[in-house]
Amino acid sequence: MRTDTGQVFKLEDYRPSDYLIPLTELSFRLSPDATEVKAVLTIERRDGVATTAPLVLDGDGLLLKKLEIDGTPLAQSTYTVTPDRLEIAHPPEAKRFKLTIETEVAPVHNEALMGLYLSNGVYCTQCEAEGFRRITYFLDRPDILSVYTVRVEAPKAEAPQLLSNGNPLERGEMADGWHYAVWHDPFPKPSYLFALVAGSLGIVNDRFVTRSGREVELGIYVEHGKEKLADYAMDALKRSMKWDEDVFGCEYDLDVFNIVAVSDFNMGAMENKGLNVFNDKYVLADAETATDADFANIEAIIAHEYFHNWTGNRITCRDWFQLCLKEGLTVFRDHEFSADQRSRPVKRIAEVRTLRAHQFPEDQGPLAHPVRPRRYREINNFYTATVYEKGSEVVRMIRTVLGPEAFRAGMDLYLKRHDGEAATIEDFLKAFEDASGRDLSQFALWYHQAGTPNLTVSSAYNAAAREFTIEIEQSVPPTPSESRKRLMHIPLAFGLVGADGRDMVYESVEGATVDDGVIHVRKRRHSIRFSGIAERPALSLNRGFSAPITLSVEQKTEDRIFLSGHDSDPVARWQAFNTLLTEALIAASRQIRGGKRPVFSDRLSALAGQIACDDALEQAYRALALALPGEADIAREIGNDIDPDAIFAAREALAKRIAEENGPSLRDLYERLRDNGEFSPDAAGAGRRALRNALLDYLALLTDGASLAADHFRLAANMTDRAAALTVLAHRHSGTPQATGALASFESRYANDPLVMDKWFLVQASVPGAQTVETVRRLTSHRGFSMSNPNRVRALVGTFANANQTGFHRADGEGYRFFGEMVLEAERRNPQLAARLATAMRSWRSLEAGRRDKARATLLAISGTEGLSTDLRDIVERMLA
Ligand code: PHE
Ligand code: ZN
């Protein structure tokens, strides 16, 4: 583990390196505790660089065995080496020379899961962002593009499959039962895209013919016996390849495309050129073991990594400050793909919910940073919701601002102009400016300025003048190290909804540029006047969630109710109802905190019942509408002095009220939605299950709810229904024989399937209430749990901290104390995992005083620990700052 040096990396310090590495030849002799790595690097001095410039290569915990230049060993006095750095003071004067480096690494002891490590006996690598330097000394930065040839040697019995990037060149037998394979990747790539996999794996094969006729061999490698579980992923891959040709004109460029599923992985998956490595959670699925959400995630992540082949690999990032160049853009692309494969509005609402749940708290707390940060201490800590999700929203806004044709022209230009290069956000924006002739300089602030902009909106109707006026004021709240903000360009999609539910047509508008249903907010204040308006409209704002902002709108409850039933934009329609629910829940939680009983209007529960039973609406949409705002969402809306217990009680009371007011009709619908036996993971099937399970959640609050949920569990024919019933039982009927029985039956059925057991850990870690911290502590000794597997840690400890407001924020601070211990425990093996886990405390300052003090004490205890990793120290110190 690297301990913190306090070094801060700054965007403005970027400078091209003195040397380039046009060719990289690697050979690996694999062994668990002493893998020999030989790197032959063709080094080239950049034009104009003095021959006296030293060559400084990055390392991380390396052991140097041998060093040669052009075949001659280097004298000890001519270089300096530490595990983290190799400096050759006087490289040869020739422009080009060959540097041979031999290092030795121990994959079996690599618990950080960066560099070369072993997962379930399979050798695999993870190099993004700075893992390659844990394999050999290198210019480990994304603007060094090199053509790789890789030879892998291993005992044939242990590792019949030997994989690396690019196309297979050659393979053969060696002495003593060893064999080898050689791979060549013709596309110059940065070191973070290097990958190697060797092991004994089951293989699923298929084929894809690209639009220009290239035949591509597709392979998905999984644990033996799990081949069937890769069918869905393979199907998603082929659909992704086709979609990228159709929608972005991007065609695949190698003869093979391989995906390997491993069980120990820090993130979701990795886009290594021609050899994607996946967390197996995002590959393996069937009806018995995966929920509809799992299927949707697999589809999205398979697409995401595949799409990186162009946005990330063919065009990569100049430096890590530009991470959003590949990530924000690729998330946007995978969102569009999923929207095309499933229901566009439902997908969009789900995106909005995710953005609010993950990115808003980040942007509104101590970890806020611009989509393109200017500083970092540890780049691993910048794989954030802001870079990914807000980064995607920014790309979406470019499309909204330019329109779909100019957007596509800009993309085409970007892909053509920068193919084979390491680019910047400026390059990206310039392509859109050049293709459209538009000026995006104010828009560019979305990349440079942190914080969630807010629009305060009010409106008035003047019947005599037939005019409707909207007053808009923008503000961007201060964020760490950015106290003063500049005015942004916010594309605000809107509609003036008439009594018949149709959008009203206006004669003219003044006060802002308004085109194609979008108000372009660019100034601090706009007073926008629409003329020729015959009646008072209901104002629908931020349709399609056109901008990632918060809105403070003065709006009549009447209008919100009307929009909940009639807005033609499904996202705004969902939002109108969700806002009604949120307002009611905030009021109720205040009442509860004041010692009163919460009061809800009859109309709200009636509206919930209507939406549930409105067959004109998509089932998945109805399920989303029925899901009450989460406790964390409500807390975020309240903003400060948060009492999680009051919020929980308010939410329970409203759920109960909705269930009681609509019992018979919800029950009737629940019966009608019964399974017809056939399972299909597509949007229609998933929508039906989502709605039925949302109904179960309400019905479980009524008399006999526990036995209804127990029947649902017993009769479930797929994991979606089974997991939903298990959650309802464990959360709403904790401790009953039905809940205990279901947990036991689930455990015995899936004891040998770690990915499914994660669901079992997750359900228990999220049981509301003060006692859960004890349950979770006990489960850390369960035989299925392991502190060194990131999926296990996230399922149990991560869920407890992120998805259990009443348990984690227990008033006596025990939740935080336990969590602090777990973070430190994880950190000893895997700093990246620990740092990510720790971000669960990012909103600690918004808690009420008692909890806030206890949370601070835990953060101080972590930061007071000696020898912390850069990863964890960076996160904890920023949270405390
Ligand atoms: N680049 C990966 C993705 O988003 C994420 C990742 C980052 C994976 C760092 C591993 C390590 O597709
Ligand atoms: Zn990505």
Automatic annotation (TrEMBL):
Gene3D superfamilies, per database record: 2.60.40.1840, 3.30.2010.30, Neutral Protease Domain 2, Peptidase M1, alanyl aminopeptidase, C-terminal domain, tricorn interacting facor f3 domain
The cofactors required by this protein are: Zn(2+)
Location of the Peptidase M1 membrane alanine aminopeptidase domain: 232-443
Q: Where is the Aminopeptidase N-like N-terminal domain?
A: 29-193
GO MF, one annotated term = aminopeptidase activity
Q: Which residues form the signal peptide?
A: none
User: Has the keyword Glycoprotein been applied to this entry?
Assistant: no
EC class (word):
hydrolase
- What InterPro entries does its record include? Aminopeptidase_N-like_N, Aminopeptidase_N-like_N_sf, PepN_Ig-like_sf, Peptidase_M1, Peptidase_M1_dom, Peptidase_M1_pepN, Peptidase_M1_pepN_C, Peptidase_M1_pepN_C_sf
Q: Which domain of life is it from?
A: Bacteria
Q: Does the keyword Zinc apply?
A: yes
Keywords for the protein's UniProt record, in alphabetical order? Aminopeptidase, Hydrolase, Metal-binding, Metalloprotease, Protease, Zinc
Ranges of residues in domain Peptidase M1 alanyl aminopeptidase Ig-like fold: 451-552
Entry's EC annotation: 3.4.11.2
User: Where in the numbering of this chain does the Peptidase M1 alanyl aminopeptidase C-terminal domain appear?
Assistant: 558-881
Record field: transmembrane: none
As its record notes, the protein acts as a catalyst of:
Release of an N-terminal amino acid, Xaa-|-Yaa- from a peptide, amide or arylamide. Xaa is preferably Ala, but may be most amino acids including Pro (slow action). When a terminal hydrophobic residue is followed by a prolyl residue, the two may be released as an intact Xaa-Pro dipeptide
PANTHER family, per the entry = PUROMYCIN-SENSITIVE AMINOPEPTIDASE
Q: Which family does it belong to?
A: Belongs to the peptidase M1 family.
Q: What is this protein called?
A: Aminopeptidase N
